[in-house]
Amino acid sequence: MTNSLLGLQIGAILFSIFMIYITFMFWKKQEYGNFIYLIFFGAWISIIVFALFPAILDPLLEGLQFKRRLDFYLMAGVFFCVSIMVYCVYVVKQMQQKVEDLVRAKAQDNYEQEEFADAFNYYNDLSKKPIKSFEAIS
């Protein structure tokens, strides 16, 4: 049991270090804002701390009446994933609204340009028609 726990701890630490690097690279490329970077960085650091010192959580686990640490880790992971999912839905809806506004503005511009072009062509066509002179009419 101790060997598998030690392997799990090493795996969690290596994974967290790798994810800190990936998160930092996304932040450096400005694909993540400061807020998202701090959330992810805090999550990876907390995984490292809890993997190194799992007994830190014992008072919290007793208060929340969890029987095992793994149950707590699973619940925390589910809560984290759901919160990230809700945030992604929020960002997608914002982006969808911006794209819709952009398309609406572009369509309005195209419509106005077509109206102008139609009016211009109408008057241009009128100017090309020969005008009957009064002499030809009489």
Structure notes:
With 138 residues, the chain is mainly alpha-helical. The chain is built from five helices and no strands. Helix 1 runs antiparallel to helix 2. It is elongated, with a radius of gyration of 33 Å.
* Structural classification: mainly alpha
Distance between the termini: 115 Å
Amount of helix? over 70%
Distinct helical segment count: 5
Largest sheet: none
- Tell me, what's the shape? elongated
Unreliable stretches covering 5 or more consecutive residues: none
User: How large a portion of the residues is in β-strands, by DSSP E?
Assistant: under 5%
What is the H-and-E element order?
HHHHH
**Mean pLDDT level:** 83
Alpha carbon gyration radius:
33 Å
Number of strands: 0
Index terms:
138 residues; elongated; mainly alpha
Brief characterization of the structure:
With 138 residues, the chain is mainly alpha-helical.
Task: Outline the secondary-structure elements.
Blueprint: H1 2-28, H2 34-52, H3 58-64, H4 69-128, H5 134-137
